[in-house]
Amino acid sequence: MDYPPTNLLFLSKQDVDALITPEDVFAAVESVFRADGMGQVISPVKELMPAGDGGALFAMPGLLGDAGVAGVKWTNFCPNQPQGLPVCWGHVLVLSSTETGQPFAVMDATTITNQRTAGGHTVAAAKYLANPGARTMGVLGCGAQGRSAIRSFDRLFDLSRILVHTRTREKFEAFRAQAQDGLRARLDYAPTPKALAEQSEILITATTSHTPVIRAEWVPQGAFVGGVYSFYDLDSALSAQADKWVLGHRRSDGDEILDNPDFAGKLSAGDVYGTLGEIVCGKLPGRESPDERIVFTHMGMGALDIAIGNRIVEKARSLGAGQTLRLI
After folding, report:
1. CATH 3.40.50.720: does it fit domain 129-300?
2. Which of 175, 247, 288, 303 has the fewest CB atoms within 10 Å distance of its CB?
3. Helix/strand/coil (H, E, C) string of the chain?
């Protein structure tokens, strides 16, 4: 039997890096949360499989009903990467049409992962949950996620100062020498996590620590806190002490945060105010007072990667980027 040809657009990491922008990531992520709040997103819970020493492999599927696109990100979290690579590396995204079920694109998703997390859904949350006039941001950690947060917040918010705390000042100084010229805000070093928290109107925790580094009592009134790695590096007491605790997605975060054995006895579903999607689509108000302390935690969903990947495909096609591969 002769089958009609099925062509895939293939985008390497270099292609994706050349096409992706913080503005594209933010627009795609915000649209997903709005669609999720309106019930137009399917985001199944991840199934983790062990890999390496303390690592995991897992698939992140999702469907965007309004866009007619479904897909899956095949991803990993492996501390023992070779040659000093980041713990999140070598991710792959496949996109398909919901009309025909046929795949139409495959691409590296490593940069998509980094940018849609601290530089994507945390930025979208801050738009609705941080004080509009916030000028000082603090970032705990200076790895790929922390750097993504710094670049995206600097582009999309009117910040005057970005404080960073890392394990060593040398690591911060190396990053500042590389990044300061491209930033509008001034980069400064916070000598301790406590000093970082106490001076931050927007506080992003982006480490792989399994021990809380930021204490709830250090977070000032009016602050927005984005826990990129949930409550692993953030005091879980903040979930109850904050004026609002917002999740990214009820089902996936219910499984990965509320029902996570690591947080057993420390978190209560009764303390959840709502989801970001419910806020973005207008079902719930976001920040209602300049004095509110608001914390946002989200462990990610495949729909976010799919929306960003679909936007990148549109740009690639208009610019003639990538390669066409024949699958059938």
Report:
1. yes
2. 288
3. CCCCCCEEEEECHHHHHHHCCHHHHHHHHHHHHHHHHCCCEECCCCEEEEECCCEEEEEEEEEECCCCEEEEEEEEECCCCHHHCCCCCCCEEEEEECCCCCEEEEEECHHHHHHHHHHHHHHHHHHHHCCCCCCEEEEECCCHHHHHHHHHHHHHCCCCEEEEECCCHHHHHHHHHHHHHHCCCEEEECCCHHHHHHCCCEEEECCCCCCCCECHHHCCCCCEEEECCCCCCECCCHHHHCCEEEECCHHHHHHHHHCCHHHCCCCCHHHEEEEHHHHHCCCCCCCCCCCCCEEEECCCCHHHHHHHHHHHHHHHHHHCCCEEEECC
